[in-house]
Design goal:
The protein has about 725 residues and is α+β, with helices and mostly antiparallel strands. A hairpin with a 2-residue loop joins strand 19 and strand 20. Helix 4 runs antiparallel to helix 5, helix 4 crosses helix 6 and helix 4 crosses helix 12. The radius of gyration is 31 Å and the shape is elongated. The protein binds zinc ion (ZN). Zinc ion (ZN) binds next to loops.
Length: about 725
């Protein structure tokens, strides 16, 4: 049973150097820990969820349909013995950054929402494990990226980053996963059919849950009979989901609407009809198939409509979740008799509730596969040799979290790769980024190059850079909400188009061309220059990137469209119609055409130096006070200065004034950096002897004194302080 912690340690030597050629990224992976995935037993879910609640209290909330909605538990006394009451509990949990977006806050209400249902059929076993493993990756990465919250956590922060690297999640991927957690609400129902999963049976008792939803039925007495369907129904009523997965098994493919008999062979025309959202459905499903990829014995998932490629059903969850709010002719109010009935108002839906892409994934030919489950080796890369049923569906799940809402992010300034964009578990003060995402540039810089990325979609149009003096736009532009207009913002450079990392073409322009010399993102990379001539020392300039994403999703099919309506889904309208607005249960979806990054603040510095110098202000990790020792090594041999032979040793014993004069000369600075470059070499100890009170000493001699005496001598004699800086100020010199 306890198979989750069964981590297989494998040391990959050559195999760990993966060249992500077709994965779009060139990187060196050094993974030392590889976990072989195993399909979960029923009791593993509550065990793991309890652990996560303890480990990540700010990122997850766990409950059951019994606790949250007062639903009865299906099953008898012998079912789910790990549950203290009769029957099986229907667990579900919410992944959300509860510090950044406290429940009920405006930013929480605006989070794009999605749901993963691991199984409606209890004997189809890949989905539940896949959504749990995907959640595990998200939580671990987001928690780690949220550290350090204060200086005491710096070591923990470094350690978890290194752990993740050992598990095959590199820095760029960690930041990507953290963004998803911190900017979305992901609801996960790992085993909606908890009884079926426990018994390893398709149905919940005698009811097939995927015929139990009020859609295209002939008789509405026979819906919401199962606790499985009621669990999902209650959760849907609480939210406005945009993207959803419903995992099944027994065949392999990714299927979308339509999948009901009324729209199949409509009016005996023998034609394959399209939904109003066919364009977006097709593009998203293709991306899922592509990122899932293939492995031995399994091709890339086919994708298309259920009516075309699979079969239609009455009472299916897929079409219900997509169209229940806007095809009233195909819905009805359920009046089941099971479990003491169900209130009729629970199946009377608002105009906003049921407009999700609830994509059906048939995971595997075997409902419970016994081989090719996959492992965690480079699991976010579709080309991984560890690919298998669970690995593939982990990626599909994460991709849905990516695609639910567009975003832009500024990642580089000149040659400096910025360390942070979205930091989980920090409160979102409306102006906090003006301090935390800020750089200083040289006062003589005439311009500054900015690199940014765009994600959350497939096609990128009109992406561009904006800037303004902070004081001029601070009423309109805040850190964590989208600007209400571009008034007062100037455009820098031109407008670009491109494609995202997950589009069939891959990331374009490629992040491999970054001038920061690192690939700062999984996504495409755009670049423009902000002119600085008109700003003065001390000025603060806000820079934002914006993009339009997936504009083609607003087009309904031109033929075979049924019903004849424009796109109806939240996800297509939210990015193509600025006037789109829905609100239910306090949750809101506001459509927009342009998606803005968190602003970067550029401060014009007082220093005139190399005009490409950029200093990150207020980084969470203090800059290393540990200079490369080699650069501080004094030359032990004589060298020539203005034709005369001289040595570094001479500097160690002359007066401070004389020494300063000599150290002004490049020749001395170059040969004697340990002695001359006090700021750059704060822990250098000179190897040359010098005289104190008529007696010859050296840093080695001083080291022999006990700590108290050494300290006293350092305090008393400036020559000791200057020659033996490491000895006198050990706090400048962290252990190497
Ligand atoms: Zn199924």
């Amino acid at each position: 049973m306890p198979n989750y912690s069964n981590v297989v340690l494998l040391l990959f030597s050559l195999a760990s150097i993966i060249d992500g050629v077709s994965g779009n990224r060139n990187r060196k992976l050094q993974q030392t820990v590889v976990k072989e995935y195993e399909l979960f037993e029923a009791e593993t879910f509550p065990q793991l969820l309890t652990e996560w609640e303890e480990d990540y209290p700010d990122l997850i909330q766990v409950t059951t349909a019994q606790e949250a909605y007062g639903l009865p538990a299906a099953g008898g006394n012998n079912d789910c013995p790990f549950y203290e009451e009769k029957g099986c509990p229907n667990y579900f949990f919410t992944i959300q950054d509860f510090i950044a977006h406290p429940i009920g806050s405006e930013t929480s209400n605006l989070l794009p929402e999605m749901i993963w249902s691991g199984c409606l059929h209890g004997n189809e076993r890949v989905g539940p494990t896949s959504v749990m493993e995907a959640s595990a990756i998200l939580l671990e990465a987001a928690y780690c990226e949220g550290l350090p919250r204060d200086p005491s956590e710096i070591d923990a922060a470094k350690e978890c980053r290194s752990d993740l690297n050992n598990k095959g999640i590199d820095d760029v991927q960690r930041k990507w996963l953290a963004r998803l957690v911190s900017t979305r609400r992901i609801v996960v129902v790992p085993t909606a059919n908890a009884l079926g999963y426990y018994r390893n049976t398709r149905e919940e008792g005698t009811i097939d849950p995927n015929r139990d939803f009020p859609y295209d039925l002939t008789n509405y007495d026979t819906c919401m009979q199962s606790i499985t369907a009621r669990t999902l129904n209650e959760i849907y009523l609480d939210h406005m989901f945009q993207l959803a997965f419903t995992f099944h098994g027994g065949i392999e493919g990714v299927y979308y609407e339509w999948g009901n008999p009324s729209f199949y062979n409509f009016q005996n025309t023998q034609k394959q009809f399209r939904s109003p959202d066919d364009e977006a459905q097709d593009q998203i499903s293709r991306a899922y198939s592509d990122y899932g990829d293939k492995f031995e014995g399994s091709k890339n998932y086919e994708y298309g409509t259920s009516n075309d490629l699979l079969y239609f059903v009455r009472g299916g969850m897929e079409d219900w979740a997509y169209a229940g709010s806007w095809t009233p002719e195909l819905t009805g109010t359920c009046t089941p008799r099971q479990f003491g009935g169900y209130p009729p108002e629970k199946t009377q839906y608002s105009n906003s509730t049921l407009r999700a892409f609830n994509i059906l994934v048939e995971t595997s030919w075997q409902k419970e596969p016994t081989s090719n489950i996959g492992n965690s080796f480079d699991v976010l890369n579709k080309d991984t040799p560890g690919n298998g049923h669970v690995s593939r569906n982990i990626r599909l799940s994460l991709l849905s979290a990516e695609l639910v809402e567009p975003y832009a992010g500024i990642v580089g300034v000149n040659e400096l790769a910025l360390t942070d964009d979205i930091v989980p578990m920090t409160s979102r003060d409306p102006e906090s980024c003006f301090e935390d995402k800020a750089v200083m540039v040289a006062g003589n810089a005439e311009s500054v190059d900015i690199e940014w990325t765009v994600g959350g979609g497939l096609t990128i149009k009109n992406t561009k850079l904006w800037y303004a003096k902070l004081d001029d736009v601070s009423d309109n532009v805040k850190c964590w909400t989208q600007p209400t207009s571009t008034q007062g913002l100037e455009r820098a450079g031109k407008s670009f188009s491109g494609t995202s990392f997950f589009s069939p073409q891959g990331a374009n322009p490629s992040p491999a061309g970054s001038i920061t010399d690192v690939e700062p993102t999984v996504g495409p990379l755009f670049r423009a220059s902000v002119p600085l001539e008109n700003f003065n020392v001390g000025d603060k300039i806000l820079v934002l990137a914006s993009a339009k994403v997936d504009p083609d999703w607003k087009e309904a099919p031109t033929s075979l469209l049924i019903p004849e309506l424009p796109p109806q889904s939240h996800v297509a309208n939210a990015r193509t119609d600025p006037n789109y607005f829905h609100e239910t249960n306090g949750k809101k979806i506001q459509g927009r055409l342009q998606w803005f990054s968190v602003p970067l603040t550029i401060v014009i510095g007082e220093f005139d130096e190399n005009e490409r110098t950029v200093v990150e202000l207020n980084p969470r990790f203090p800059p290393d006070v540990d200079p490369p020792q080699d650069d501080c090594e004094d030359n032990a041999d004589p060298f020539l200065f203005k034709g005369t032979e001289t040595t570094c040793q001479e500097l160690a014993d002359i007066s401070a004034q004389k020494r300063e004069k000599k150290c002004d000369k490049n020749k001395y600075r170059k040969n004697c950096p340990g002695l001359c470059k006090e700021a750059k070499c704060p822990c250098a100890n000179s190897k040359f002897p010098f005289i104190i009170k008529g007696e010859t000493t050296s840093c080695d001699d001083e080291k022999e004194f006990n700590e108290t005496k050494r300290g006293r001598r350092c305090d008393k004699f400036s020559k000791i302080r200057r020659n033996c800086r490491g000895l006198c100020n050990p706090e400048n010199c962290p252990a190497r």
